[in-house]
Amino acid sequence: MKKIITLFALLITTGLFAQDIKGTWYGLLTFPGGKLRITVHVEQSEKGFTATMDSPDQGTMGIPTENVLFDGKEMSFTIPAINGEYKGVYENNGFVGTFTQNNYPIPLNLGREEIKTEKPKRPQEPVKPYPYYSEEVTFKNEKAGITLAGTLTMPKKEGNFPAVVLISGSGPQNRDEELLGHKPFLVLSDFLTRNGIAVLRYDDRGVATSGGTFEGSTTNDFATDATAAFTYLQSLPSINKRKVGLIGHSEGGTIAPMVANANKDVAFIVLMAGTAIPGDELMMLQNYLLGKANGMPEEELTNLGNINRKIYDVIKEDIPLTEIKTKLYNVFNSELKPLFISKGISNEQVTQYINMQVAELSSPWYTNFIRYNPTTALEKVQCPILALNGDKDLQVAAIANLDAIKRAAEKSGNKKVTTKQLSGLNHLFQESSTGSPSEYGSIEQTIAPSALNEISVWILKQVK
């Protein structure tokens, strides 16, 4: 499933008259739960202006942008990778504007002066030198023809260690699964390696220093990347080939069973908030829980739920993509457009929002996600499984998904399945007051010690 706040990007292009906007621009997105700096690099060619964006706080560089327009006063552009858009007015050698993603507007001004922010407190983040061996590595996904990059950590340079591959959640993620100043996979790999377990974590395809293209890829594609990581880890002389497992977070928890089924050498899998119910059911439940947490009235939740049901039913139809888009436009225009207009949103803004939504909902990743039932893979897994969920997770509801994993185990006859609901933890396994994504960035803790201990102790039992 999609992370609620993954990455905000932007691009800027030239104005008419004498404005020279080539070079670097800086901005700061401020939203509930955190702030994100952005850096924009603008270049000019005969065909016009192009630009890429860096998100220093998330370790993501070179984000592409499209559809840049500037009429001498107002500038606009789209960011396909995150289903976003930006509009700004040129004033006093900068741009004053608004970034909008999924109908959620955030003020975003751009200027020439670099923005410096106080680094958030992340007390669990390890500091070098580490008391273990760490190495930057690359490995090949032969099936996709791409090279992925990551970090391998081992208790010592030589030995015969049990090991795990970390598989990130949805959206473009670097090897640390970096989000809002947190580096969950860095903290997790550090903890496991200090406890005698080797760890391989890697950048998603098309992210940071990994090759390939993220946009247009599906969960099935990411599963081949995880398989390549597993194969690489098994090939190393210091790794015990019979004791290599997988840890997947969120969408990574959907991928892990897929990889385990394709390779019977997988010794165990750990699902951290892994999805176990069909994509459309997951999104129906997620939308309801998030809306309720944000104070949405029950009547409005019901109405929006009915509209979402129609949208997901369209996506699940076995019809050409052009027909899916046409039907989605019909649902949005007949069901949502009148609602937005009644709330004072302009027709132009509603049209832009609908266009963005249809593009996202009809993308390869999203259509595959909505149609996929994770139980299909879970019912075939025969290796040991540990499934953990926080009871305050509003994105992957604990009870619904853990119960689905239990049912899959019963059907498969796998007796080595452990499911646990961890008290007080959110989707990122932080100790949380409400579980709302708006808290993710403001919480200093990256992963609760209770979750780290559960994972480490369980793995060590499996590899004895």
TrEMBL record:
What top-level branch of life does the organism fall under? Bacteria
Coiled coil location:
none
* Domain (Xaa-Pro dipeptidyl-peptidase-like): residue spans on this chain: 145-393
Tell me any Pfam family this protein matches. Answer: Peptidase_S15
Q: Which GO MF term does the entry hold, naming one?
A: carboxylic ester hydrolase activity
Q: Which SUPFAM superfamilies match?
A: alpha/beta-Hydrolases
Q: Which UniProt keywords apply?
A: Hydrolase
Q: What is this protein called?
A: Alpha/beta hydrolase
Q: Which InterPro entries match?
A: AB_hydrolase_Est10, AB_hydrolase_fold, Xaa-Pro-like_dom
Gene3D superfamilies from the entry?
alpha/beta hydrolase (3.40.50.1820)
